[in-house]
Amino acid sequence: MLVVEDIQSNFFLVSSILKNKCQLLHAPNGLEAVEIVRTQPVDLVLMDMKMPVMDGRTATSEIRKFNAEIPIIALTAHAFDADRVAALKAGCDDYLVKPINGAKLMQTLKEYGCWKEGIKNVLIWKRVYSILSVFNISVTCLWWRKKRSAFWM
To answer: Alpha-carbon distance 118 to 129, whole Å?
Structure first.
């Protein structure tokens, strides 16, 4: 996932919300974001709209010229409806307003298929449970066998 954010503290906030849950790339402006999306595998872009060098709307338009599939989510402090419309018109798939709401961010990532941690955890726990179940059954059987053989002796 690529986080395009010029303010370091905002990037740290996003990275703390997503800590240990996904691999993050960081671009401090839209120009670097375009190059990263062009040259590296990225599954989703969180795009700030107001940045130096190249703003988020221009960067989104540039990315859409060569990649129409990647989800791009505007992440901005501009909460006016006109800003949302402009971001969507530039090619953003969704629009989140700062300050960042962790639950809303996670829900949005799930909607775009980029957050599968919950599914992954369920599958891991099912496997662990099945392994432990087999282990407990075999331990119980060994204990019962030992107890039964001691009883019959």
So the answer is: 16
Residue with structure tokens 């053989």? 149
Read off the pLDDT band of 67 (50, 70, 90).
Answer: very high
Q: In terms of Cα–Cα distance, which of 103, 100, 76 is closest to 90?
A: 76
Rounded-to-integer distance, Cα 99 and Cα 111, Å: 20
Q: What is the pLDDT of residue 116?
A: 53
pLDDT value of position 107 = 84
- Record the tokens describing residue 77, joined without a space: 């402090």
pLDDT tens-digit readout, 80-130: 888 888 888 999 999 888 888 888 888 888 888 776 554 344 333 334 444
| Of 84, 124, 120, 102, residue with least CA distance to 14 | 102
The per-residue DSSP string of 96-128 comes to: EESSP-HHHHHHHHHHTT---HHHHHHHHHHHH
The β-bridge relationship of strands 72-76 and 25-27 is unpaired
